[in-house]
Amino acid sequence: MKSRKNPPRIEEILQVLEQEYPLATTALYYNTPFELLLAVILSAQTTDKQVNKITQKLFQKIKGPHDILNMGISWLERAIKGCGLYRQKSRQIMETSRLLCEKYGGEVPRTREELMKLPGVGRKTANVVLSTAFGIPAFAVDTHVQRVSRRLGLSGGKNALAVEEEICRLVPRELWRETHHRLIAHGRRVCRARKPLCNACSLGPYCPLAAEKTR
């Protein structure tokens, strides 16, 4: 029996994803690396749609970390109240803005290690900022990526880091960013957590879950 991780199969899966989602990118609204950083922090336990509603107004007044500090935490709490954990996120954003001003001249750092020193920034957020804002190869793993990867048999990792490491070994470095966005798009539209649309899935021939359903 062929391995589910043999190179021809991986290449075919990537080709199908490219055909289905050629323009896949982040759904978060942003214009600058700082805006993307804030948007990703806000997106924890909140939908991208809701985050965009908040940032559409927020970014009219906030252009950089100095603006956050000038507005103060009470104003920030009111501005982002529509997203989950807004008080915790307000504290994280205020402290992150302070560190950006004090240590990085108001600019968002371009290494994972430096990004992860900022409050509210974990490995996934750092990878999103690196790959999406700066074009630096990095592969972020969220719930959609983890679910689709496991169902396709691309990864058996039990946590996000394990999935990231395994996918990065399988997928060419120059395709990490696109593959991240395409797996998310597929997870949202077709390979849903509940009631996945296996009958309408273009990746059905490569998916063990779809094969089980057709037996």
How would you describe the overall organization of this protein?
The chain is mostly helical and 215 residues long. It has 2 domains: 7-25 and 139-210, Orthogonal Bundle (Endonuclease Iii, domain 2); 33-134, Hypothetical protein, domain 2 (Endonuclease III, domain 1, Orthogonal Bundle). The protein is built from 12 helices and no strands. It has helices at 7-20, 33-42, 48-61, 65-71, 73-79, 86-103, 112-115, 123-134, 143-151, 160-170, 176-189, 208-213. The protein starts with 6 loop residues before the first helix and ends with a helix.
Radius of gyration equals 19 Å
Q: What's the tally of helices? A: 12
Beta fraction: under 5%
Relative helix content: 55-70%
Shape descriptor reads: elongated
| Tally of structural domains | 2
Q: Write down the CATH topology of the largest domain.
A: Endonuclease III, domain 1
- H and E string: HHHHHHHHHHHH
CATH top level class name of the largest domain: Mainly Alpha
Topology:
Elements: H1 7-20, H2 33-42, H3 48-61, H4 65-71, H5 73-79, H6 86-103, H7 112-115, H8 123-134, H9 143-151, H10 160-170, H11 176-189, H12 208-213
Index terms:
215 residues; mainly alpha; Endonuclease Iii, domain 2; Endonuclease III, domain 1; 2 domains; elongated
Question: How would you briefly describe this protein structure?
Answer:
Helix content is 59%, strand content 0%. With 215 residues, the protein is mainly alpha-helical.
